[in-house]
Amino acid sequence: MAELCDKLLADLTEHIKNLGKSLGFQQVGICDVDLSRHEAHLQAWLDKGMHGEMQYMAEHGMKRARPHELVPGTLRVISVRMDYLPPDAGFARNLKNRQLAYISRYALGRDYHKLIRQRLKKFGEQIQQKVSELAFRPFVDSAPVLEHAVAEKAGIGWTGKHSLTINREAGSWFFLGELFINLPLPIDSPVAEGCGSCTACLTICPTGAIVEPYVVDARRCISYLTIEQKGPIPEEFRPLLGNRIYGCDDCQLVCPWNRYAQITDEADFHPRQQLHGKTLLELFAWDEQKFLKNTEGSPIRRIGFECWQRNIAVGLGNAPYADEIVASLQAARESASELVREHIDWALDQQAQRKPGQADRQTLRLIRSVEKGLPRDA
Fold first, then answer.
1. Could you name the active-site residues (predicted)?
2. Does 176 show up as a binding residue in the annotation?
């Protein structure tokens, strides 16, 4: 009887994995709910305050590592992977051109939260048609779930030193989603770690946010600073943002495993024309109505217009000097909020320092100030 039951569960698991792939998930893995080995790491990270202003990271305590407490009755977690790398993106080129605005790859298309959650809901409903006793709940980066720990245990990939999941055949340009279920399905095995001695992601991080392998101090991370941080961006980090106005991809761009990244099958993840490859000045010229219109259905909308302007002002401050940039910043200053005005003033100061001939004028002022203090016969 036990053997028959095992055979039925194995057959159901194969059906579920095939079903997931038919719904557009490139990979489906299954794990149990024991994530206890991650609890100490999570608590130490929280104790050091590395979550910054993201209070929701601490509010749920260890529920993040205890799926059965988050959703009582959960026996297994189905982890899914969906690739989002668009064709012919040219992102590295955009990052090097300081006049262009750099937006993280994942945010240039449709909001993945909505798309993947809808697919997961449909996934659960179709499994339910096969097994009426199924109870399920989908999650997509929207609740206290250790998604990378789950993906690692479910065999989707290993956790890289930048804390993201890496897959040998697909790199790391993919989204993760989870389906909590109450069925005792057979589980998958974790894959071997593949980072080895590589430290490229630690070395490339513009702000040194990856403070040690597998530990990211969110307070230093450009993704956090441009998305989660609601107040002023600390001045020490502003020059390091460069032209990154929403998120950062540096640790993934440099990862050698991303040479194997797969192009997405989802047209919704392709870059939107109004966001990709635009100059900082073009985006800074948007009013709030245009911002809301052009970011409809995009994850960018959730930061709000004020933080959008704040981020772009920093980008303009880091751009090569241009009269147009100075004029645009000055024109926007009068009607800007206090938060945005602070960053505009910083940007104007940066532009003034970069103005052609400024260094010569500063040197001349220094010489004159020194001369004033010298004896007449010196």
1. 141 (proton donor)
2. yes
Contact status, residue 98 vs residue 318, Cβ threshold 8 Å: yes
Distance CA 138, CA 126 (A): 13
Residue 159, annotated as binding a ligand: yes
| pLDDT tens-digit readout, 201-257 | 999 999 999 999 999 999 999 999 999 999 999 999 999 999 999 999 999 999 999
Residue 214 in tokens:
């597998």
* Residue 307 in marked binding region: no
Question: Cα–chain-centroid distance for residue 3?
Answer: 44
Cα Rg, the chain, nearest whole Å: 25
217 is catalytic: no
Q: Output the CA–CA distances (angstroms, integers) from residue 235 to 342, 343, 361, in the order listed.
A: 10, 9, 25
Q: How far apart are CA 60 and CA 91, in angstroms?
A: 36
How far CA 203 is from CA of 208, 250, 259, in Å, comes to: 8, 10, 19
Query: Annotated catalytic residue: which of 32, 141, 268, 345?
Result: 141
Say if pTM beats, i.e. exceeds, 0.70: yes
